[in-house]
C-alpha cells in the first residue's frame, strides 16, 4: 500500500508520515504530481493558513491534480478545510471538491480560539468506513479556529458551536482533528482509511 502525503507546506507533515508507516503503509511526503496520481491512497494534511496552503498547492501545480484524484483521499485538519469551495481565512478560493465555505468558529468569549484540545465525535453516518470500530466514546485532538459546514458531515463535534469533524464526498474524506496525534483512536481511523 503506497500513500502519498501531499507536501502543502507547514508543520506536522513528518508526524503524519510516521503514523502511516506505523500502520504498515509505504508513506512518502511529496509534491510530485505523478507520484500522487499513482499512489494507492493520498493524504492532504495541513497546518497553517488556507491562503498559504493554496498558494503552495498552486505553485506546485497540484490544484487540478488533487481535484481529479480517483483513489481514496483523506484531508487532515487544514486539509479538510481546503476541500471546500472557499475559506473566510484570508478570503481565499479553495479546491471546490465539497460545496460550501469554511468560516471562523463563532464561540462565546469564555471559550478559547484556536480550539485546542480533545473532543468526542457524534457519528451522524455510523456506516461510514472511517467509523469502523469507533463508537463515539473516543477522544480526538483538535487545533483549529475555522470550521466547515455541517451539510457534508459524517461526524460532528462541538466547540461553542457544532462543526463538521469528519466529512465525505465520494472518494474524498477528511477529518478536522489530527489522527496522528489522537492515540489509539486516531490510529484506528487511519487504519480504516488504509483498508476501507
Structure, explained:
By secondary structure, the protein is α/β, with parallel strands linked by helices. The chain has one domain: Class I glutamine amidotransferase (GATase) domain (Rossmann fold, 3-Layer(aba) Sandwich), CATH 3.40.50. 25% of the residues lie in helices and 32% in strands. It has helices at 13-22, 33-38, 50-59, 63-67, 78-82, 183-195, and strands spanning 2-6, 26-30, 41-44, 73-76, 84-87, 92-93, 98-104, 115-119, 122-123, 140-144, 146-147, 153-158, 162-169, 172-175. Strands 2-1-3-4-14-13-12-9 form an eight-stranded mixed sheet. It has a four-stranded mixed sheet with strand order 6-5-7-11.
Briefly, what is this?
25% of the residues lie in helices and 32% in strands.
Secondary structure elements and pairings:
Layout: E1 2-6, H1 13-22, E2 26-30, H2 33-38, E3 41-44, H3 50-59, H4 63-67, E4 73-76, H5 78-82, E5 84-87, E6 92-93, E7 98-104, E8 115-119, E9 122-123, E10 140-144, E11 146-147, E12 153-158, E13 162-169, E14 172-175, H6 183-195
Parallel strand pairs: 1-2, 1-3, 3-4, 4-14, 5-7
Antiparallel strand pairs: 5-6, 7-11, 8-10, 9-12, 12-13, 13-14
Provide the number of structural domains.
1
Backbone structural class: alpha/beta
> For the residues shown, what is the average pLDDT?
95
- What summary fits the major beta sheet? 8 strands, mixed
Order of helices and strands: EHEHEHHEHEEEEEEEEEEH
Rough outline = globular
Unreliable stretches: none
What's the β-strand tally?
14
Radius of gyration: 15 Å
| N-C termini distance | 12 Å
CATH architecture: 3-Layer(aba) Sandwich
- Spatial sequence of strands, sheet with the most strands: 2-1-3-4-14-13-12-9
Which class in CATH terms? Answer: Alpha Beta
Helicity level: 25-40%
Q: Any idea of the CATH topology?
A: Rossmann fold
- Tell me the number of helical segments per DSSP (H or I, 4 or more residues long): 6
The CATH H-level homologous superfamily: Class I glutamine amidotransferase (GATase) domain
